[in-house]
């Protein structure tokens, strides 16, 4: 029986017989596995996991951890480059070192300094799980999944993605560069992103880009919700109204009816246009805000649907994906009844103007909404 097979067999027995394992049995297993696998059974590995009241860790979590790191271990072995050699390589490369440090630091400040003060309390820092993850990386000679934000491979991927988007090589991402972002972003979202989140003359530098990546990767985190909220709040007034939604929906819905196909058995009826008012009604139903037709940051966070809200307003592709797969059912093709009730004059949202009307019609000024507790949304 090969060593690899014996290790797989050991874990199969774990999964079928046990749910948790204590430290004594953990060390006993570590002593019985092949030499090259014993690095996964150090005390630091056991301390990495959350323990139950009997000081046991979950076997399933341990198996996932080892599987995630095994590929990295094989790559490092085949390449004859140990973790300490990689660390020396990072130290010897000023550019890579600076990028790596910036990438790590940015995550801490993004989540622990939401108001952008430039400072984090020491107690807040050391008590946060991110610090424990980074400390584990230091103690365990880099034994973290390659998907971890603190892994060197992840830093390389982020920097490569930034450089690939930076078409002119000026170290900043402008409007044209961001059109190559995946998933594709609408022009209105890109314009507002650059207006509210850039610190480099209207373009995103690498730090700004990392903020965007963190927000996209953690869409339901309160800090990410705050990040996107300040983009959608056009006038930075502390709340979002129909006027704000209309600005972003225009790009999302424009021409959408021309690309859709009827479902089998359906007949085309009426204009077949996508009514922004219908989309907007469903957005307000989704968020269930405390004030009618007004969405605050607190509404967005407590709704649990902030990631859907962001997807609908920022990307045509994400909107299509949500509509087709998750049930935001808007009747694109069939107008079997009248559209949503007509809105007051200040809420005219028709992106598809009747014949003879001007498509360049300016948005009328919306009236003041009810008094709200305004929330600061500084990036």
TrEMBL record:
Domain called EF-hand: residue spans: 153-188, 220-255
InterPro entries documented for this protein: EF-hand-dom_pair, EF_Hand_1_Ca_BS, EF_hand_dom, PPP2R3C
The organism's place on the tree of life at top rank: Eukaryota
Xref: PANTHER family: SERINE/THREONINE-PROTEIN PHOSPHATASE 2A REGULATORY SUBUNIT B'' SUBUNIT GAMMA, SERINE_THREONINE-PROTEIN PHOSPHATASE 2A REGULATORY SUBUNIT B'' SUBUNIT GAMMA
Signal peptide, first to last residue: 1-19
The keyword ATP-binding is annotated on this UniProt entry: no
Organismal lineage: Eukaryota, Amoebozoa, Discosea, Longamoebia, Centramoebida
Broad class of the protein's primary localization: cytoplasm
Chain segments carrying region Disordered: 357-379
This protein's record includes keyword Lipoprotein: no
Protein name from the UniProt record: EF-hand domain-containing protein
One of the GO biological process terms: microtubule cytoskeleton organization
One Gene Ontology MF term: calcium ion binding
Gene Ontology cellular-component terms listed: cytoplasm; spindle
Compartments in which it is found: Cytoplasm
Naturally occurring in which organism (per UniProt): Acanthamoeba castellanii (strain ATCC 30010 / Neff)
Keywords linked to the UniProt accession: Calcium, Cytoplasm, Signal
């Amino acid at each position: 029986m090969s060593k690899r097979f014996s290790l797989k067999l050991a874990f199969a027995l774990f999964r079928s017989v046990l749910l948790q394992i204590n430290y004594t049995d953990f060390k006993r297993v570590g002593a019985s596995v092949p030499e090259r696998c014993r690095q996964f059974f150090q005390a630091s590995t056991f301390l990495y996991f959350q323990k139950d009241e009997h000081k046991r860790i979950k076997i399933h979590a341990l198996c996932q951890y080892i599987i995630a790191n095994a590929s990295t271990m094989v790559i490092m072995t085949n390449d004859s480059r140990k973790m300490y050699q990689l660390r020396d390589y990072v130290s010897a490369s000023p550019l890579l070192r600076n990028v790596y440090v910036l990438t790590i630091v940015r995550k801490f400040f993004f989540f622990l300094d939401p108001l952008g003060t430039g400072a984090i309390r020491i107690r807040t820092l050391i008590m946060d799980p991110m610090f424990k993850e980074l400390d584990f990386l230091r103690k365990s000679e880099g034994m973290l999944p390659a998907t971890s934000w603190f892994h060197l491979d992840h830093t390389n991927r982020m920097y490569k993605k930034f450089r690939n988007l930076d078409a002119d090589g000026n170290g900043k991402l402008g409007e044209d560069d961001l059109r190559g972002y995946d998933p594709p972003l609408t022009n209105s979202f890109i314009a507002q992103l650059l207006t509210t989140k850039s610190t480099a003359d209207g373009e995103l530098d690498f730090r700004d880009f990392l903020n965007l990546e963190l927000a996209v990767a953690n869409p339901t985190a309160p800090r990410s919700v705050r990040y996107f909220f300040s983009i959608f709040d056009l006038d930075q007034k502390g709340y979002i109204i129909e006027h704000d939604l209309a600005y972003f929906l225009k790009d999302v819905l424009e021409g959408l009816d021309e690309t859709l196909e009827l479902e089998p058995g359906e007949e085309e009826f009426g204009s077949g246009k996508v009514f922004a008012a219908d989309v907007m009604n469903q957005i307000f139903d989704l968020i269930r805000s405390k004030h009618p037709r007004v969405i605050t940051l607190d509404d967005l966070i407590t709704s649990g649907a902030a990631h859907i809200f962001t997807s609908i307003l920022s990307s045509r592709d994400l909107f299509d994906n949500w509509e087709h797969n998750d049930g935001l059912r808007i009747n694109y093709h069939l107008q079997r009844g009248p559209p949503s009730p007509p809105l007051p004059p200040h809420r005219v949202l028709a992106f598809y103007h009747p014949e003879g009307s001007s498509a360049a019609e300016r948005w009328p000024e919306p009236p003041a909404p009810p008094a709200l507790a305004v929330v600061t949304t500084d990036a």
